[in-house]
Design brief:
single chain, 8-stranded parallel β-sheet, 316 residues, TIM Barrel, globular, alpha/beta, 3-stranded antiparallel β-sheet
Length: 316
């Protein structure tokens, strides 16, 4: 499955591990890269010097390309970007902001830039800003999400029509069958988040991994659209949010309820009641915790098997 995404990143398989806060440290990133995909360190949950440590450890753990994901609303983004350049990270995925802000600066340093979008409008803006590829993330995805609630199956073909640069699909992709479906719709790469949360190398707390495995259909929901839309597992914290809505809470009251470090409390520290448990709808298909390399290989095997079956059926 060699294509523009593989050539752009210098990887064997066009499978990209998402840069998820509290879940995507150097262990997961290096494991995915060593397996032939593109591992990503999620900087959104790291202080600058912590990120530097993760980058250095990742470089020791793999000789293959890896990336860093940078949410552009990060308060110390200048320090983060300086560290990325100093540590010679080859690829940066930017999100949650205007791609014009950093794309030219990063590309001048010889860094490949990819931007995450949730709409056709912002995919066009990303291409105009000069990014090398776009990740189009559908409404099914975990964590912070687009306000338009466009599903992956609708978003990918619309974005494919709108841009000419490589397109990576994200949101609801956790199997080879879903990879193939996204490819048919126009994607050249596949960003996988939730499935890699339930990996042995994920830095998520074991309680959170187990909760992901236990999740079923309808156990996640997109909420807090007044602040920043986020898909999370229903738990006590979510019930508190619902109660606040029923009480007609103001935006400031919702901010107070959210507080600080909710995601860390849930995903990293393992508080399944009071934590913010960010995960995608595809969690209903995840039934085990496996090594990242096994997850990647299973997806590739299923992709090839289903593709071969369809080709054979079409020839009859």
């Amino acid at each position: 499955m060699k294509n523009r995404v593989c050539r752009l990143f210098g990887i064997e398989h066009p499978v990209i591990q998402a840069g998820m806060i509290w879940c995507s440290g150097w262990e997961l990133a290096s494991a995915v890269s060593n397996a032939g995909g593109l591992g990503i360190i999620g900087s959104g949950s790291m202080y600058p010097e912590i990120l530097r440590t993760h980058i250095q450890k990742c470089k020791k753990a793999t000789s293959k390309p890896f990336a860093v994901n940078v949410p552009m609303l990060y308060p110390q983004i200048e320090e983060i970007m300086d560290i990325i350049v100093q540590e010679e990270v080859p690829i940066v995925f930017t999100s949650a902001g205007n791609p014009k802000t950093w794309t030219s600066w990063l590309k001048e340093k010889g860094i490949i830039v990819v931007h995450v979008v949730s709409s056709v409008k912002f995919a066009r803006k990303a291409e105009e800003a000069g990014v090398d590829a776009v990740v189009a993330e559908g409404f099914e995805a975990g964590g912070h999400n687009g306000r338009d609630e466009t599903t992956t199956f609708c978003l990918i073909p619309m974005v494919r029509e709108a841009i000419s640069i490589p397109l990576i699909a994200a949101g609801g992709i956790g199997s080879g069958r879903q990879m193939l479906a996204a490819e048919v719709l126009g994607a050249e790469g596949f960003q996988v988040g939730s499935r890699f949360v339930a990996s042995e190398e994920s830095s998520a707390h074991l309680y959170f991994k187990q909760r992901v495995v236990e999740a079923g259909e309808g156990d996640t929901i997109l909420t807090l659209k007044e602040l920043a839309p986020v898909r999370l597992i229903k738990n006590k914290f979510y019930n508190d949010i619902e109660q606040a809505y029923q009480s007609h809470a103001t935006v400031d009251e919702l901010k107070t309820l959210l507080g600080r470090a909710r995601a860390k409390k849930g995903m990293f520290e393992g508080d399944m009641d009071e934590g913010e448990l960010e995960i995608g709808q595809v969690s209903g298909m995840i039934h085990d915790i496996l090594p990242a390399a096994d997850i990647l290989q299973m997806m590739l095997d299923e992709y090839q098997s289903v593709k071969t079956t369809l080709i054979s059926a079409g020839g009859k």
